[in-house]
Amino acid sequence: MGDILVSTGRLSTQDALRILHQQKVSKKPFGEIAIALKVLTRADVDYALSLQFDYAYLSDKESDLSPALIAAYQPFSRVGENLRALRSQLMLRWFNADPHNKLLALVSPGTGEGRSFIAANLAIVFAQQGERTLLIDADMRSDPANGQGALFKLRGGVGLSGILAGRTTIEAAQAVPGLARLVVLPAGAQPPNPQELLGRVSFAQLLFEASQNFDVILIDTPSGTKYSDAEIIAARAGAAMMVTRKDKSQLSDAALLSQRLQDQGVLLLGAVLNDA
User: Fold this and answer.
1) Long-range contact list for 1-6, CB < 8 A, 24+ apart?
2) How far apart (Å, rounded) are the C-alpha atoms in residues 50 and 165?
3) Beta strand ranges found along the chain (DSSP E)
4) In the chain, domain spans
5) 218-251: pLDDT as tens digits
6) Which long-range contacts (CB under 8 A, 24 or more apart) does 62-68 make?
7) Which residues contact 40 (CB under 8 A, 6 or more apart)?
8) For the segment 137-151, what is each residue's pLDDT rounded down to a tens digit?
9) Which residues, 6 or more positions from 188, have their beta carbon under 8 angstroms from its beta carbon?
């Protein structure tokens, strides 16, 4: 641990030697002694442990990705723990139930309910577990500045819309620096016909190809009650999870979306309530 902290500039060589000397006397863990001596914070120790045990972790001092990626910046926070609990449930109910179950659509009745936030952070915790994870932003209705490409600070404007229009391939998906095993495919330029693009065979082909190369594929979608895109996407995925927000989502809208998805044969695995 000391070598990691010194090499990343979080700990001086002199302080590292002080800690090692104290460790010989007290037999306490390196990190606990460093915190007691006030030369490191708990966040510093957690960061070193994450590198030591190959656990993807971002430092706000070394990354400019969105602070909304809490699972990467603060993986040991209450939000991080809740996301891991959600990951466990999804693994048990869907991904581990059948080796062919690799696709999951994240849906929500309206906008501003935290669907993209959940999708991004859930993708991170799956990657942290060692799953080869692909996050697809299939919300081609919203401004790209508010999409997954902006959260992960992806370069260029090519994405899903370009693939479905036949102008590029899955190579448009980008690995995320500092988050091993996570790849993100942004929505790309806003097309005039997103529903028609999603209905093309090229979308099914894309998902099939992705399933050959990834363990977990999460798909972010547009508002479920405003557009039919979410139904098309969820039907292709076979399963969906609904995201709602406390004091914002309407129960009637959530019930309507749930019924529409089930009418399409989609397995609705459950719902997440934001700000509970």
Assistant:
1) 1/30, 1/31, 1/45, 1/48, 1/49, 1/52, 2/30, 4/48, 4/51, 4/52, 5/34, 5/40, 5/44, 5/48
2) 40
3) 103-107, 133-137, 174-175, 182-185, 216-220, 239-245, 267-274
4) 2-52, 70-274
5) 999 999 988 999 999 999 999 999 999 988 999 9
6) 62/178, 63/177, 63/178, 64/153, 65/151, 65/152, 65/153, 65/176, 65/178, 66/150, 66/151, 66/152, 66/153, 68/117, 68/120, 68/121, 68/151
7) 5, 10, 11, 31, 34
8) 999 998 888 899 999
9) 140, 144, 157, 158, 159, 160, 161, 162, 163, 172
CA dist 42 and 242 (Å) reads 34
Blockwise average pLDDT, block size 10, the chain, 276 residues: 79 86 86 86 75 72 87 91 96 95 97 94 96 97 90 90 94 92 96 95 96 97 93 96 93 94 95 82
The fourth-level CATH superfamily of domain 70-274 is P-loop containing nucleotide triphosphate hydrolases (3.40.50.300)
- Looking at residue 133, its amino acid is T
Tokens of 204: 């099914």
Distances (CA, A) of 155 to 86, 178, 201: 30, 15, 27
- Residue for token digits 């002080």? 18
pTM (2 d.p.): 0.85
Structure tokens at 132: 């080869």
